C-alpha cells in the first residue's frame, strides 16, 4: 500500500466533526531519559482511509464531424461558441467533384439496370423443323403409292420395305435432331442465367457506388450530431496544397477567372486557423466539434495498488487546479475493467465519478468547472468508526508483518498486529492491541525487546 497516496485520515475526521471517544494520552519516558521515545495509551477513534488520484473534468458527450470530401466552405450557419441542437445545420460545403461523381454513378446504375433486362435471343428452329416434317411426309406418301402400284408382288414387297426403312431412318434422324435442339436450348438457358447473374452483380456494385455518392453529397450539409456548444477547427494541410488543387474545388464558372489571377506558376498554399467561408477543406479534415456540458463528470487515474479498494458508491472530495480554494463533492460510478499505462510508467485504472456542485472556503457556491480541467480526487475508500487505533508512527514492519512495541510492566515487548483502515495519522488495529494498552508512539526504531520503558 502506498501511504504517499493517502491523505487526511485524521484530518478528514476533524473536517467532518468526528470527536475521538478516547484520545491517545502521551507521556514521555525511557531509561536514560531519551526524549526521542514516547509512549501513549491506545484508544478509540474514527479512521478514514483516503486514496488520492489525479483526475480530469469530462463533458457528458463530445462529437466531431469531419469533411466527407474535398471542397470549399460555402456557408457558415452558426458562430463559434453557439449552442446548437442535434440535427441543426452548422455549415454547408460545396464540391463540384462530389456532384459530378453522383451524376456518373446515376448513369452507371441506369446502364446496369437496362443491361440486366435484355434477354439472350434464341434461333427460330421450330418453323424449319415443321417444314422438314411436312416435306418428308409428302415424299414418303408418294413413294408408298408408287410401290403399291407395282403388279409384281415380290417387287412390290421389296419396294414397300425400302420405303418403310427410309421412314425409320428419317424418324431416327428426327429424334437426334430434337435432342440436339433441346441441348442447345438448355445451353441458351444457362447462358441467360449467367448473363443475368453478371448483370445482377454489376447492379449491386453500381447501387453501392450510387449510395456512397449520395451520402457524400448529403454530407456537404454538415449537421450537429448532438446538442451542445460548437467549436470550429481548421487543421493545417500537410505539405501545402497546390493552387491547381484549390482551383478544382471552385465552381466551373469561377475557375477561369481565378486561374487568370493566379497565373500558371506552381504556387502552393497552406491553410490554418479558424474555419471560415470560402476556405478549402480536405476529405477527413475535422470541421466542427460539439460539446455537451449539460452534465459534468470526472475521470480519475487510480493506481493498481489502490484500485481494489474503490467501488461504486465511494464518496470523494475534489479540488480543481483552477479553483484551489473550493471543494467539490463526487461519487464513484464505475471502475473500468481494463488497465491503462500511467504517465509515471505504472499501471492505473480509470475510475469514473459523478461531479456535484462545490463550495469555496466561505461556504459560497463555487464556479462551475469546464470540461478538461485538471483536478485531484480524494476517494474515501474506507471509514472505520469507533475502532481501536494507533498512530502511524507506532507501527513498523517486522519482516512481512506489522508490529508495535507494547509496554508491559515497564518493558517493551514486540507484538504483531493486523491492520484495517489506514488513515494519514492513524491506523485501525483489528487484532493485537486493546484499548488502554500502552505502546511506543515515537522512536520505535530506537527500542529493542526488553528495554525498560516507563
Kindly list the characteristics that best describe this protein.
alpha+beta; 6 helices; OB fold (Dihydrolipoamide Acetyltransferase, E2P); 454 residues; Elongation Factor Tu (Ef-tu), domain 3; disordered N terminus; elongated
Would you spell out the secondary-structure blueprint of this structure?
Blueprint: H1 9-15, E1 26-28, E2 38-41, E3 43-58, E4 61-66, E5 71-76, E6 83-84, E7 89-94, H2 96-116, H3 126-148, H4 153-218, E8 221-223, E9 228-232, E10 241-242, H5 243-248, H6 252-262, E11 268-269, E12 280-281, E13 286-292, E14 297-303, E15 315-320, E16 326-341, E17 347-360, E18 374-391, E19 396-398, E20 401-408, E21 411-422, E22 426-431, E23 438-442
Antiparallel strand pairs: 1-2, 2-23, 3-14, 3-18, 4-13, 5-7, 5-12, 6-9, 7-8, 9-13, 10-11, 14-17, 15-16, 15-18, 16-17, 18-22, 19-20, 20-21, 21-22
Helix pairs in contact: 2-4, 3-4
CATH topology of the largest domain: Elongation Factor Tu (Ef-tu), domain 3
State the share of residues found in helices, binned by percent.
25-40%
Looking at CATH, the homologous superfamily of the largest domain is Efflux pump adaptor protein, beta barrel domain
Main sheet characteristics: 6 strands, antiparallel, barrel
Unreliable stretches (pLDDT < 50, length at least 5) are 1-32, 237-244, 261-271
What's the structural domain tally?
A: 3
The helix-and-strand class reads: alpha+beta
Radius of gyration: 47 Å
Rounded to the nearest angstrom, the distance between the terminal CA atoms is: 33 Å
Could you say which overall geometry the principal axes of the C-alpha atoms support?
A: elongated
Give the helix tally. 6
The CATH architecture of the largest domain would be Beta Barrel
Mean pLDDT: 80
The first-level CATH class of the largest domain is given as Mainly Beta
Biggest sheet: strand arrangement: 3-14-17-16-15-18
Strand content: 35-45%
Can you write the helix and strand succession as a string? HEEEEEEEHHHEEEHHEEEEEEEEEEEEE
**Number of strand elements:** 23
Amino acid at each position: 500500500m502506498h501511504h504517499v497516496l493517502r491523505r487526511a485520515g485524521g484530518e478528514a475526521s476533524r473536517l467532518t466533526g468526528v470527536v475521538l471517544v478516547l484520545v491517545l494520552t502521551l507521556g514521555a519516558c525511557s531509561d536514560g531519559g531519551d526524549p526521542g521515545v514516547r509512549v501513549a495509551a491506545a484508544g478509540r477513534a474514527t479512521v478514514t482511509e483516503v486514496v488520492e488520484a489525479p483526475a480530469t473534468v469530462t463533458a457528458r458527450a463530445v462529437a466531431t464531424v469531419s469533411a466527407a470530401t474535398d471542397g470549399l466552405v460555402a456557408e457558415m450557419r452558426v458562430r463559434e461558441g453557439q449552442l446548437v441542437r442535434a440535427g441543426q445545420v452548422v455549415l454547408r460545403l460545396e464540391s463540384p467533384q462530389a456532384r459530378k461523381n453522383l451524376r456518373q454513378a446515376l448513369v452507371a446504375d441506369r446502364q446496369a439496370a437496362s443491361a440486366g433486362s435484355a434477354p439472350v435471343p434464341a434461333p427460330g428452329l421450330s418453323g424449319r423443323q415443321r417444314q422438314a416434317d411436312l416435306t418428308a411426309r409428302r415424299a414418303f406418301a408418294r413413294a408408298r403409292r408408287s410401290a403399291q402400284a407395282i403388279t409384281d408382288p415380290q417387287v412390290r414387297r421389296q419396294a414397300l420395305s425400302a420405303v418403310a426403312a427410309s421412314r425409320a431412318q428419317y424418324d431416327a434422324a428426327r429424334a437426334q435432331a430434337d435432342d440436339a435442339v433441346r441441348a442447345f436450348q438448355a445451353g441458351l438457358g444457362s447462358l441467360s442465367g449467367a448473363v443475368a447473374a453478371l448483370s445482377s452483380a454489376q447492379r449491386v456494385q453500381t447501387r453501392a457506388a450510387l449510395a456512397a455518392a449520395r451520402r457524400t453529397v448529403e454530407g456537404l450539409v454538415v449537421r450537429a450530431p448532438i446538442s451542445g456548444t460548437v467549436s470550429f477547427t481548421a487543421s493545417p494541410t500537410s505539405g501545402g496544397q497546390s493552387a491547381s488543387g484549390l482551383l478544382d474545388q471552385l465552381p466551373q464558372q469561377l475557375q477561369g477567372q481565378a486561374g487568370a489571377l493566379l497565373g500558371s506558376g506552381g504556387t502552393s498554399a497552406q491553410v490554418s486557423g479558424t474555419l471560415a467561408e470560402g476556405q478549402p477543406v480536405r476529405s477527413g479534415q475535422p470541421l466542427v466539434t460539439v460539446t455537451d456540458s449539460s452534465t459534468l463528470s470526472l475521470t480519475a487515474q487510480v493506481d493498481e495498488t489502490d484500485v481494489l479498494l474503490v467501488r461504486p458508491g465511494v464518496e470523494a472530495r475534489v479540488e480543481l487546479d483552477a479553483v484551489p480554494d473550493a471543494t467539490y463533492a463526487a461519487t464513484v460510478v464505475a471502475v473500468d475493467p481494463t488497465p491503462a499505462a500511467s504517465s509515471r510508467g505504472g499501471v492505473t485504472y480509470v475510475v469514473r465519478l459523478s461531479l456535484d456542485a462545490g463550495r469555496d472556503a466561505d461556504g459560497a457556491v463555487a464556479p462551475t468547472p469546464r470540461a478538461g480541467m485538471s483536478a485531484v480526487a480524494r476517494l474515501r475508500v474506507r471509514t472505520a468508526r469507533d475502532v481501536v487505533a494507533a498512530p502511524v508512527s507506532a507501527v513498523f514492519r517486522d519482516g512481512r508483518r506489522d508490529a508495535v512495541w507494547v509496554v508491559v510492566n515497564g518493558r517493551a515487548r514486540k507484538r504483531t498486529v493486523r491492520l484495517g483502515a489506514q488513515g494519514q495519522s492513524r491506523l485501525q488495529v483489528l487484532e493485537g492491541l486493546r484499548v488502554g494498552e500502552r505502546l511506543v508512539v515515537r522512536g520505535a526504531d530506537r527500542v529493542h525487546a526488553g528495554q525498560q520503558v516507563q
